[in-house]
Inverse folding.
């Protein structure tokens, strides 16, 4: 059986142009959750808390996974992609060698809520071509058993596989609504749980909403709850040096410095048709 190594509660922070959100973990826990870099839980009934969004900004050397529970986020990028992530949709963006994009939440009725997970890329893939994968809520694979509902965002469970293919870093990512007992077995070393609502029991420990538990590296996971919704995320550590500067994550200070120099001189985007307009937006 796995045990709990660390319990954390999400903390209020402000990002982008003034978006108020809850940071589950981030830069301060840089080596604890390898290969995961950051998990943000965002949402509010007050549109003023989020509509300023995340204007044009760069990424390199990592991936972002945006999962909308409710509401919509409009996105566009420097290689010509644009669209809207709607309620229940997921966008998996691999920044690779570099991308400049914006993510702008739209005002919605009721509470806008969702998550963004950052995943580090291994050294061999940090400069791979950037790309997106988008999945609608209709494409999500679901498992239901004895009152428990599981959305498989990535990975495999009970012989069923999530919709995202050919991932740069193999991870399990489940959205679980639990009334009863859930058992999970994996050889992946990094396993974390984040409680969205309700409460659950892990052994003798009670975890309530907005709590994240990082588990030990080996053994079975057994969770019980009368009613809880939580994320379960797992992956193997990259065990590589990390140099993290804002939205760019590289292995060495020299690589990070080069990335920001390229932003200044207009050579950051490595695709065949760099969009100078987007780069100018970023510089402003």
């Amino acid at each position: 059986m796995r045990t709990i190594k660390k319990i954390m509660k999400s903390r209020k922070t402000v990002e982008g142009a003034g978006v108020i959100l809850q940071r589950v973990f981030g830069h301060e826990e840089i080596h604890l959750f390898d290969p995961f870099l950051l998990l943000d839980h965002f949402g509010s009934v007050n549109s003023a808390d989020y509509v300023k969004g995340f204007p044009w900004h760069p990424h390199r050397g990592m991936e972002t996974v945006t999962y909308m529970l409710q509401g919509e986020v409009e996105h566009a990028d420097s290689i010509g992609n644009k669209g809207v992530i709607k309620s229940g949709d997921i966008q998996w963006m691999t920044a690779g060698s570099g991308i400049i994009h914006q993510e702008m939440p739209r005002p919605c009725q009721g509470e806008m809520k969702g998550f963004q997970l950052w995943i580090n890329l291994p050294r061999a893939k940090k400069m791979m071509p950037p790309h997106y994968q988008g999945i609608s809520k209709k494409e999500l694979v679901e498992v239901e058993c004895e009152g428990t509902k599981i959305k498989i965002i990535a990975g495999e469970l009970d012989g069923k596989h999530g919709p995202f293919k050919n991932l740069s870093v193999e991870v399990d990512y489940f959205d679980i609504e639990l009334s009863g007992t859930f058992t999970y077995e994996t050889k992946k070393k990094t396993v974390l749980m984040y409680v969205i609502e309700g409460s659950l029991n892990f052994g003798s420990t009670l975890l309530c909403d907005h709590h994240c538990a990082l588990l030990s590296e080996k053994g079975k996971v057994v969770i019980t709850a009368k009613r809880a919704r939580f994320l379960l995320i797992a992956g193997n550590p990259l065990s590589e040096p990390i140099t993290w500067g804002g939205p760019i994550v590289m292995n060495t200070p020299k690589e990070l410095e080069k990335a920001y120099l390229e932003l200044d001189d207009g050579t950051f985007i490595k695709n065949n048709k760099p969009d100078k307009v987007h780069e100018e937006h970023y510089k402003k």
